[in-house]
Every structure is written in C-alpha cells, then in structure tokens.
Amino acid sequence: MDTVLLTGFAPFGDDTENPSQQVAEALDGRRHGSATTVASVLPVEHGRAADLLIDAIDRLRPSLVLATGLASGRCGISLERVALNAAHYPLPDSNGCRLQHTDLAVDGALAYRSTLPLDRCYERLQAAGIPVELSYSAGTYLCNEVFYAALRHASAHDLPYRAGFIHMPYASAYIARRGHLAPSLPVAMLVEALGLIVQECMQ
Ligand code: PCA
Prior knowledge:
It is globular and about 45 Å long. The strands form three sheets. The chain has a seven-stranded mixed β-sheet, with helices on both faces. Strands 6-7 form a two-stranded antiparallel ribbon. By secondary structure, the chain is α/β, with parallel strands linked by helices. The model has no long low-confidence stretch (mean pLDDT about 100). The chain has helices at about 20-25, 50-60, 120-125, 140-155, 170-180, 185-200, and strands spanning about 1-10, 30, 35-40, 65-70, 75-80, 80-85, 110-115, 130-135, 160-170, 170, 185. Pyroglutamic acid binds next to strand 4 and helix 4.
C-alpha cells in the first residue's frame, strides 16, 4: 500500500484551534489512486514534534510526506520552498521552551529545498481559485523544525519519499467566533487545497 503521511499541528499560543489539525483530520483515510492518506497531529513541542514525525515516517514508509501548519497573518496557502537549519522561536513552545539563535542540527546542512513539485501545485491551486503563494520562509519555529527534520532524514538515509511543508491561514469560522480579525480561508477551501496538492504530488 502506498501511503501519504499528512501532518498538522495542535493549537498553540493564544489560539484554541489550529486549521492544520482540522485539515489533516478531514483528509485522514482519503484514497488517491493506490495511495491512502494517514494523518497525524503533532504537538507544538521542540524535539518531540520532529521525533514523532520521523517515527511515523519509519513506521509507515510513505512515498509522500506533507507537513502543514498555521501561519497567522498569511493571506493564502503558502508553499514553502526552503527549510532552514535554525531555531529562533517567536514564542515559547507548549512546554515553555524558547530557543533563540540555535542550530537545529550542529553539523547539518544550512538548508534543504522542498522536494515537492511546488510550481505545479501553485498553478493547480490558482486554477482552482484558491489564494496561493510560493514562500521562501517557513519561519524559525516548530513548522520549520519538522520541515527540516523530514528533509534531513530523507537525505541522511537516502529515503525515496518526497517531502515539503505547507502553511495555511486561520479558518474563517474560527476567526468569526474569535472576533479579533485576521486573514482566513474557509476550512472547506483549505481541505480542497491540500487534496489538490496531494493529487499533484502523486502524479
Ligand atoms: N504553526 C507554527 C507551529 C505550529 C503551527 O501550526 C509555525 O509556523 O511554526
């Protein structure tokens, strides 16, 4: 069986929902040709998030690893091009850890490129009427940390999976409930976007 590993993150900071968790749960079990999507929701915790992702990769041996998270303030789907060997947390993780100006891997490469077909994904989402951008910064918090871990693991062990990271804005219904406005998209559109990205990546 061919597996797509799709990860989201648990809520963090002052937010009580994370759209990436909702999208991952919505797509869990979704079939695409001979491939099945397996979703996992990672904690916003230094070390543990990346360890859980690598454990899932070693257990499931997926052909595609799509990691996703919330980027508050972004106006559309952000297709991340680069994972950086750096941690500089803008806020503490869920355990109160706040790394500053730290390397993720002491002797690791400075950066890895996403191995997803991002230009094709960009065109596919645009054609579907979904706001999308190509991004050169996945930040220096937990999203970049798992992105870097997934690509370093593939490179270090010569594993054949494609891996990348997708940031998304808030879910509109959450922002409406919260009252304090910020850029958002409906959950249904976020789910559609990730479904289309899986399709492009599995071609
Ligand atoms: N977004 C954070 C971490 C978890 C998430 O959903 C980030 O952009 O690093």
